[in-house]
User: Which sequence fits this backbone?
């Protein structure tokens, strides 16, 4: 049967005899203990899950702390502490995954990392992914940023036996028996830490093998097939994209049995001489993994259980206009439409969005792209947000938008089975 579009019918995934109705359990956090933004909440908490906006070494009044990477990381983490506290959590006990952003990772990593470690004295430590060159400073002189996700329930640390142990960093974290977060993997041997020879393609292959090992350690019953079966979102960061992007894309694709919505982010710097860094999120084996496709294009993936829906939409671009504002609008609208397909029939993107990332190729265009993004929300509550600049985007686009959503589902409704209107040119499977 032709499949121009795979729509997710939540009632078909869960028990068909029970009606499914979504509830918006989100709490938008804006505390006086951290800087505010006109385009984002500081964090969003829902049903035990917390996602945050990227924080920098900026005080609540918007001024940058002096002293470089170390003091800036300290202030950024204090901002995160305030956001976690507003949700009733602490980063030391409840952070599950963190991303560290650097203007220059080689120069600033050690000073920032020394400070970072002091905020995580307890096991299990969250996963950690450092990224260089992915930066739009909110204040002149900012050199580091950080964001962390968290969860109320205890998380399970994944420690593959054949990985060299690392301080203050888990290779993987299984969160609330629903999601697996992995640390960023580069093309290095996991025991020796030595980078493999052979350039970007060989490094991408090694990084994916490392991720296979992490997924297999998290779900031993699935072995090396766990990555292919459970992954829902992979961020692939590539240095020197003009020559490396095609090589990396081909190497990574070999690890998946069907087309996969990779986030290929050229122009980012993994640092320390690496050409590639890859991190993946997966769904627990108890979650139903469902794809959203339009005419063979994979728009994203959803994880569905009888209690929750997690939606991961791949970065969207539109190049029909040469205007940064128009490209932002069109990309955002594509994300809105894609997420709608993955949600219960009585909910929309506006009811589910938890975090959005705005990718801007030229740092000079960041202000215009952010203004257009903010206009899209208008009077609606805004989710957490991250801005990444300096990336080489598909089709020469100036802007890309990526969003993640979440919905709680209840099964006690007396409504009939959830239905979805399907246009004549679409099919539901």
Assistant:
């Amino acid at each position: 049967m032709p499949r121009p579009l795979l729509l997710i019918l939540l009632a078909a995934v869960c028990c068909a005899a029970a009606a499914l109705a979504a509830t918006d359990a989100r709490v938008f956090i804006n505390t006086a203990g951290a800087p505010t933004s006109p385009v984002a909440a500081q964090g969003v908490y829902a049903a035990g899950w917390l996602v945050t906006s990227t924080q920098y070494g900026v005080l609540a009044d918007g001024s940058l702390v002096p002293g470089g990477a170390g003091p800036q990381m300290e202030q950024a983490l204090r901002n995160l502490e305030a956001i976690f506290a507003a949700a009733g959590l602490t980063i030391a006990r409840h952070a599950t995954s963190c991303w560290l952003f650097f203007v220059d990772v080689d120069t600033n990593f050690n000073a920032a990392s020394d400070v970072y470690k002091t905020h995580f004295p307890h096991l299990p430590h969250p996963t950690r992914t450092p990224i260089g060159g992915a930066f739009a400073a909110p204040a002149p002189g900012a050199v580091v940023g950080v964001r962390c996700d968290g969860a109320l329930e205890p998380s399970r640390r994944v420690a593959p036996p054949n990985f060299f142990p690392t301080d203050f960093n888990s290779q993987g974290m299984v969160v609330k028996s629903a999601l697996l977060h992995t640390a960023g993997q580069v093309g290095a041997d996991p025991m020796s830490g030595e980078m493999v020879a052979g350039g970007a393609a060989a490094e991408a292959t090694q990084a994916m093998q490392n991720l296979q090992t992490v997924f297999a350690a998290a779900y031993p019953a699935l072995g090396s097939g766990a990555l292919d079966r459970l992954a829902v979102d992979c961020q692939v960061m590539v240095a020197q994209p003009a020559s490396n992007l095609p090589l990396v894309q081909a190497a990574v694709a070999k690890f998946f049995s069907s087309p996969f919505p990779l986030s290929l982010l050229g122009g980012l710097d993994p640092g320390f001489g690496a050409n590639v860094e890859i991190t993946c999120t997966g769904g627990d084996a108890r979650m139903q993994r469902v794809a959203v496709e339009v005419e063979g294009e994979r728009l994203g993936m959803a994880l569905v259980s009888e209690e929750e829906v997690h939606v991961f939409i791949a970065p969207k671009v539109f190049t029909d206009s040469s205007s940064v504002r128009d490209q932002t609008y069109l990309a955002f609208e594509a994300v809105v439409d894609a997420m709608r397909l993955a949600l219960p029939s009585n909910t929309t993107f506006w009811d589910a969005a938890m975090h959005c990332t705005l990718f801007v190729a030229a740092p000079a265009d960041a202000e215009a792209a952010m203004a257009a993004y903010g206009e899209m929300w208008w009077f609606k509550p805004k989710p957490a947000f991250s801005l990444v600049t300096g990336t080489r985007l598909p089709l020469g686009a100036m802007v890309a938008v990526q969003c993640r959503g979440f919905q709680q589902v209840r099964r006690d409704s007396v409504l009939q089975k959830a239905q979805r209107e399907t246009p004549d040119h679409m099919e539901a499977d």
About this structure: Residues 1-21, 411-429 have pLDDT under 50 and may be disordered. The first helix runs from residue 10 to 13. The first strand starts at residue 5 and ends at 6.
